[in-house]
Specification:
Blueprint: E1 6-12, H1 17-20, E2 25-34, E3 39-42, E4 47-61, E5 67-70, E6 73-77, E7 83-87, E8 93-101, H2 104-110, E9 120-122, H3 127-142, H4 147-165, H5 175-182, H6 190-197, H7 201-212, H8 216-234, H9 239-245, H10 251-262, H11 266-273
Antiparallel strand pairs: 1-2, 2-8, 3-7, 4-5, 4-6, 4-7, 4-8, 6-9
Helix pairs in contact: 3-4, 9-10
Length: 280
């Protein structure tokens, strides 16, 4: 019997209803190299991230004409959409894949981590992604009662690693995001932030959305509320003083924002943290 011109290792999981309550579950993982057989055309009922780490080939999604694939690249296979792909028959490629599902995928899609509208994504590298996938592979080989939860947790890490691996995202940040974070506590408007950065407001909005998956106001609010929590927990500043420190001249407005996002008023948050004692 002839040896196939490729190597293939894969495992599939069957998470229970309790595991699915985690919001995201791993359904399978695989690592393959060489002159792999063509996949499809087919459609699945769940998501798959296929990462091509070396080599080249082609990918067709939604019945559209095949597009060339050059590693490193990500192929998103989304539920109910026909896909068809394969490596160059002369060179082959190396790939890994992770099958996953769950209601959390919708949130990751809204935040821009999963991009069904962009099924072929060039990557700047694949080392971080391969590290996460290797963790799932090692867990699958080891087995045991923690496998399903360990693999589910790793899928969250995979989506973050894929986001960082995209060529337009830097783990170190860029000048725009660094400056915006530095000035987040200033009592100025989003338009004034754009002016300080010397860029049109729509361009700033696109830059923040691309990097964080959220709007500028949400990004600034996240930073301000994180700092406000630190001040409430670690100092005895009055709420009005905390509000001013994080860019709000109106303490009542600050309290409403804080209560809406955190789920409790600033004074209640401070009371919950008071057992740790103030550290100025």
């Amino acid at each position: 019997m002839a040896t196939p011109p490729y190597s293939s290792w894969m495992r599939y999981f069957s998470p229970t209803a309790n595991h699915r309550r985690l919001g995201l579950v791993c359904l399978g993982v695989g690592v393959q190299q060489g002159l792999l057989p063509v996949v499809g055309p087919r459609a699945l009922d769940h998501h798959v991230a296929v990462v091509v780490s070396s080599g080249r080939g082609w990918f067709s999604h939604g019945g559209r004409p095949p597009q060339p694939v050059t590693a490193p690249a990500l192929l998103w296979l989304v539920p109910g959409v026909e896909h068809h792909y394969g490596p160059d028959p002369q060179t082959g490629w190396d790939e890994c894949f992770v099958d996953f599902a769950g209601p959390s995928v919708e949130a990751y899609t809204d935040l821009g981590y999963v991009t069904p509208e962009r099924p072929l994504v060039p990557l700047s590298g694949s080392a971080g992604v391969l590290h996460v996938v290797d963790g799932i592979v090692r867990a699958a080989r080891r087995g045991g009662p923690l496998l399903e939860v360990e693999a589910a947790a790793a899928v969250h890490g995979l989506l973050v690693a894929l986001r960082y691996a995209r060529s337009e995202v830097s783990r170190q940040g860029d000048a725009v995001m660094d400056t915006l974070a530095r000035d987040a506590l200033l009592p100025i408007s989003v338009a004034e932030h754009a002016a300080q950065l010397g860029m049109p407001l729509p361009q700033l909005r696109r830059a923040v959305r691309r990097s964080t998956g959220e709007g500028v106001k949400e990004y600034l609010l996240d930073i301000r509320l994180s700092r406000a929590k630190e001040l409430l927990a670690r100092t005895d500043l009055p709420v009005a003083g905390v509000a001013r420190r994080v860019g709000y001249e109106d303490p009542a407005y600050f309290s409403r924002l804080f209560s809406h996002r955190v789920g409790m008023a600033p004074v209640r948050f401070r009371a919950q943290q008071s057992a740790r004692g103030p550290l100025r």
